[in-house]
Design goal:
The protein is α+β, with helices and mostly antiparallel strands and 134 residues long. It is 27% helix and 28% strand. The chain is globular and about 40 Å long. The mean pLDDT is 94.
């Protein structure tokens, strides 16, 4: 199987992982977990879940577009949050942020509350899969 690693220059340089890997043939794109990390490698808005969610989606969009796709090519997302209660408390602005990126398209999704993420300032991380047409 042939595959291509995607590490868009618009994102922080990854260390020990790739932002995405796309396979040839079926063009399945595996999206690494993205956080609210900006291009400098720092979590933007360390205490703001909605702002981090927006940056996370922007990062995912960058990887999908680097593969030649768009966010509606995403077929599965897993959302990890460090505080499910905070996520629920911000459902309206989180939904508005989501729709700003995806419109009314909803892939299969899972939300998981975790104790912590790799970066202590990260409040959310999202990973997923996309199918990119050849």
């Amino acid at each position: 199987m042939n595959k291509r690693v995607l590490n868009p220059e618009a994102l922080a340089r990854p260390s020990g992982y790739s932002h995405g890997v796309i396979t040839s043939g079926g063009n399945l794109l595996f999206l690494a977990g993205q956080t609210g990390m900006d291009r400098s490698g720092k979590i933007a808005s360390p205490h703001d879940l909605v702002a981090q969610f927006s940056q996370t989606l922007a990062n995912l969009k960058t990887v999908v577009e680097a593969a030649g796709g768009e966010l509606t090519n995403v077929v599965k997302l897993t959302i990890y949050v460090t505080d499910k209660s905070a996520y629920r408390a911000h459902l309206k602005p989180l939904g508005e942020t989501y729709r700003a990126f995806f419109g009314n398209y909803y892939p299969a999704m899972t939300l998981v509350e975790v104790k912590s993420l790799f970066d202590d300032n990260a409040l959310v991380e999202i990973e997923g899969f996309a199918v990119i047409a050849v």
